[in-house]
Amino acid sequence: MSLELLGRLQQELTITTSAVYETILAVAERANRKAQVVRLHTQASGLLSQIDQVHGELGRQIVTFCAKRPSLSHESALPSQELGDLLGQATDRVQHLKRTLLSVDNHIREIKLETIHHELLTLQQDLSLRAAAIERFPVANGSPIQGKMLADISWPVSVRLVTVLRGPFLVPPDNALQLRLNDILIMIGLQEDLALVATEFIQPRSAKSA
Fold first, then answer.
1. Greater confidence, 66 or 206?
2. How many domains does the chain have?
3. Based on the domain organization, do 179 and 204 belong to the same domain?
């Protein structure tokens, strides 16, 4: 009996140790992503400063160049080779910096999307372990829920409406809110209760045939 108990304890300790290890890895990975984003933002800030410096230097060079030319000369209105070279060099430099800045910005977006994806997967796993889920329900044309006020809708006990996506806006789930066509409801709850909620968003067959 004692050996069996020791075996169970060892198994539980192994599982706990594995979970702690995975948690530490997840935290370290999250911290690493944040550090990467901070470094990239610093790099982007430096690139913007360099672009400002190029513009400032170009302005000073143009002022110096114009000051050397006769103010009433007919030729002073014509662009010179020297001025063209200055503008060309500055343009090339700024374009190069902007391309680098765009690359940094894309890298930041990729890291943030990767972080969001990881967090969503973790959330789904946590909910799945509890027979729960988070779902999105679009309001279809002719569905029973279209045109209803949130105050008039009864959800299952476990279901919570997180937010309503309406076009580019995030709409708070206020009781006075009337649901419109193409609204998307983000809901969380037990999977079996969410399955019941889904029926409210399905267009009736009679409406489809009509």
1. 66
2. 2
3. yes
